[in-house]
UniProtKB/TrEMBL annotation:
Record's protein name: Glyceraldehyde 3-phosphate dehydrogenase NAD(P) binding domain-containing protein
SUPFAM superfamilies: NAD(P)-binding Rossmann-fold domains
SMART domains linked to this entry: Gp_dh_N
Stored PANTHER family: GLYCERALDEHYDE-3-PHOSPHATE DEHYDROGENASE (PTHR42955)
Origin species: Diacronema lutheri (Unicellular marine alga)
CDD domains, per the entry: GAPDH_I_N
Residue ranges occupied by any Glyceraldehyde 3-phosphate dehydrogenase NAD(P) binding domain in the UniProt entry: 14-166
Length: 171
């Protein structure tokens, strides 16, 4: 494997919305916070308020205390050790302010939006791409598993893609 150079090095970071902030959404945030090519600008979670979301991120039952620092919140903003992230509670994908926030990628982690018709509003609102954490059974939506078939991903063609499910990703 060896060290890899990101094709995005020295470019503008992708601006991400995490839609759904349960276990998978929180794991996405933890992974992205250490990635300079990607910036989480908003989290959309309708099942928990901002205080609860901050707490369950800081004191994760599986991964322990959030490191490297403190998590706080004020108004509609979460602060992850200096990184400010807008907290939304919007049910309908079409109502999420994708363009206003400059979001380029939506990571869909609710488990509820797993067909093209439910995901299309994110693209219609200005997102370049939607990555779904659950299977999407639709023609033209590739199931991409890193280390298995990532070479089949065509950015110019695939605007919606899925990371399959937890089972193939554990291979």
């Amino acid at each position: 494997f060896g060290p890899q150079v990101s094709p995005m090095a020295n470019s503008t970071p992708e601006r991400v919305l995490i839609n759904g902030y349960g276990r998978i959404g929180r794991l996405c945030l933890r992974a992205i916070l250490g990635t300079p090519e990607v910036e989480v600008v908003a989290i959309n979670e309708i099942a928990a308020d901002i205080a609860t979301s901050a707490y369950i991120t800081e004191y994760d039952t599986h991964h322990g205390k959030f490191l490297p620092g403190k998590i706080s919140h004020e108004g509609d903003t979460l602060d992850f050790d200096g990184r400010k992230i807008k907290f939304l509670q919007i049910k309908a994908p079409a109502d999420v302010p994708i363009a206003a926030l400059g979001i380029t990628i939506v990571i869909e982690c609710t488990g509820k939006h797993n067909d093209v018709a439910k995901l299309q509003p994110f693209l219609d609102s200005g997102a370049k791409r939607v990555v779904v954490s659950a299977p999407v059974k639709a023609p033209g939506v590739p199931n991409i598993v890193l280390g298995v078939n990532e070479q089949t991903y065509q950015p110019s063609v695939h605007r919606i893609l899925t990371a399959a499910s937890c089972t193939p990703n554990c291979i």
